[in-house]
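Hi support team,

I submitted a single chain yesterday and got back a structure, but I'm not sure I'm reading the token output correctly. Could someone confirm the output below corresponds to the sequence I sent? I've pasted both exactly as they appear in my results page.

Thanks,
R.
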Amino acid sequence: MMTETGVSAAMIAPLQTGDLLTAYNGILVRMGLYILIFWPTVGYYVYQDSIKRGLLITPPSG
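Hi R., thanks for writing in. Yes, this is the structure output for that exact sequence:
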């Protein structure tokens, strides 16, 4: 059966809910890895570099 655009209905595969969940889980896994591994590692090196350069501003004590 042809649609208005001339594309048969068989050519348009319906998106399965499993595909959406798999793609969504892939995004969650990537974001989780980014937050757990990449961000603390980069934050540590930026912090250490700021100490070396004397850019760290410490609040006054007392």
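A quick pointer for reading it: The longest helix spans residues 17-53. Let us know if anything else looks off.

Best,
Support desk
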